[in-house]
Amino acid sequence: MDNYSRKITNREISLDENKIWYKTASELWDQGLPIGNGRIAAMVLNQYSEDVLTLNHEGLWVGSNVSREIYSSADNALEKVRGMLSDGEYEKATLYATDNLGRNAGDTNKISRTDSYQPVGNLHIKLNDLTLSKRELSLENGIVTVKRESDRCECTGRIFAHCIDEKIYGIWKGAISGEIFIERAFAENASESVNVSDGCICYSVKFKDKTAFEVSVKIHTDGAITKKSNKINIENGKYLIIVVDVQLLNNKYIEKNAPFTLESYDKDNIADKAESTMIQHAEHFSSYMKRLSLKIDCDKVDLPTDERLAAFKNGSADENMFALYLNYARYLMISSSICAKLPINLQGKWNNDLQPAWNSDYHFDINLQMAYWIAENGNLSEMTSSLFDYIDSFNDSARKAAKRIYGCNGILLPLSSDARGIASMDSYGWDIWIGAAPWIAQHFYKHYEYTGDTKFLKERAYPYFDAVVEFYEDYLVCDKDGVYQITPSISPENSFLENKDIHISLCISSAMDVQLAYDCFTYAIKAAEILKIDSDKTERRKQIRENLPDFKIGSDGRLLEWNKEFKEKEPGHRHLSHLYGVFPSNLFTPERNTEQFSAAQKSLDFRLKHLGGHTGWSRAWCACLYARFGRASEFYKHIRYLIDNFSTSSLLDLHPPRIFQIDGNLGGAEAILQALLQCNDGKIYLLPALPENWQDGEINGIKTVGGHTISFKWTKGKVRELNIEYGFEDEVIFKFNDGFELKTKKTDRSVPIYFE
């Protein structure tokens, strides 16, 4: 047994919910095993006689639109649109705004200028005379293990993206003969070169727009090495170690070549050093994964994950599949974020296409936000740092956009963007929406709510709230009744107009825009009061907030999505924008705005009756909403449907027809947490939407508002043991699913607390 195997023997990685494993090869890219450290990533395809690492670097975007400009709106365009809306000319206003505000103002090119996230290339490690017997990804430590054998010999490989030194390692031991090479799909806008030496493959690509990158593959083995064209051949080795790094050149992410960790070691001890490096990675990575755990009592299922998933889809009572799904999502978040400078994009950090769907970019109207829903309550608060850094990078261009397009102070963020942090409106047909910045504000406020970090609140969150509200103060229109209207306004990405040539429906004060404005004013007000600053601003902002439009309910009892009862163009639309107030906000709860809370349930039921929720991320949102509604059976139905119908065999979330999108994974995980614990109205609700199938279980390490860490066990649907690690607030009020309330303080109650 090698040192690494001795180190991890009898640890929790053997549990079903902490690994995914297979006896079959990866036939498709989305059946691979993802590894990453946030900066670089790889989808590991373990084929029968070959390991293929499809490589990515978070900063590798094609770079053809680096210097794109923010257009100014046409003269008086905003006032003209407002006049049309006031007169009820919604279609005319939509067409005019689309051509004279935002992206298309003064430009007839309607093609998005958002860059595409790019793959680095495929690194092949071919192993002669061996056949795959098992491949496994440990979610706890982020290591792929692959075993191969023949009649005469065997080989075990371990592959991981080091979460400290930020390189990718592969360590194979056994009978090793084969070849190593790297390749990339042909692209007309790129030129490539390969330089092979005895111990290294250096692969370089340069795009016509001057973006460039370089891949270094360092190779260590005790076998015989020979060069053959652009490949390295290895014969009769007992070990093979590769170390992979990707460096970006000629753009804002220029990096210094960090030293390769193993360079100073000779052949006699390099294998041991490689194992020590792997253990270092595993311990650091697992320190995040082990913070939270979920166990649902059920029979153990000892099947490869693809077979286990197939049985689950056929109705097996494998309730710990949900624990596995939760852990997998947390694993994806850590692997996308732990060393990242950029946030999670539509595919996390994994992409194999030169032209990925939606450019694999950042969408601010649900997808980016959903990717971070589990960060705070999932006990991974540190993983938000790249999100906040990215939002801060927009600051100058966001102010320019607000001023040039709408003549307002403050900031305006686009509906979609790429790595460069340019607030240009490039979602043609959808770019009139002003809600991106206030929705992101929720993440700044949640970070404070869950950590109590007043330095963050003062230096980063409050300045952001202030800038967003500053925009509102200029943009809002006070009508004759003293109501501050949001005009123009949309409900992304839904429509009530029948015109097939346009995609949006402008209105006055859509439900979502009003909810977002109310929340963002609240964040600014609360933050200023906590920090004891800007009292004059705060009083003015309270007055505006209290005179925002009402949260309207239609004649059929549904929450009104627009300012009037328009007929939806798509009654089963995938977006649930007007239900933001239920989740991810808690503006509507059973104790606050209760009529709207009830109306929102009717809206969701209606949407699903008309076949809504037909993408992975949309179904995940449905599950979150039903958890918030406390409707356990509907929550269970939709979280199970998400896994059944929108998962690859490696549990990656799918957008039809078969497009990997990480938001469904992360949003689905949040739904599971919401079913078990919610923070609303100053209380912590335990088991608010517990399904009948989850009557016995335990969760450990879930975070709450106030900075508390909660662990509890339940049997027969009732909490029996509760443990509290108090945070920055002194008092906690729990509300149990039988209606019982319990108030505890740091000073007056021991833990754990037991219940009969």
Report on this structure.
The structure is a single chain. This protein has 756 residues and is an alpha+beta fold. 30% of the residues lie in helices and 25% in strands. It contains 17 helices and 29 strands. The strands form six sheets. Strands 1, 2, 3, 4, 5, 6, 7, 8, 9, 10, 11, 12, 13 and 14 form a 14-stranded antiparallel beta sheet that branches. A five-stranded antiparallel beta sheet has the order 15-24-25-26-29, covered by helices on one side. A hairpin with a 5-residue loop joins β18 (477-478) and β19. α6 (321-337) crosses α17 (662-676). The longest helix has 22 residues, at 454-475.
Shape: globular
Average pLDDT across residues? 93
Helix content: 25-40%
Number of helices: 17
- Binned strand content: 15-25%
Uncertain spans = 4-14
Largest sheet: 14 strands, antiparallel
Structural features:
756 residues, alpha+beta, 14-stranded antiparallel beta sheet, 5-stranded antiparallel beta sheet, 17 helices
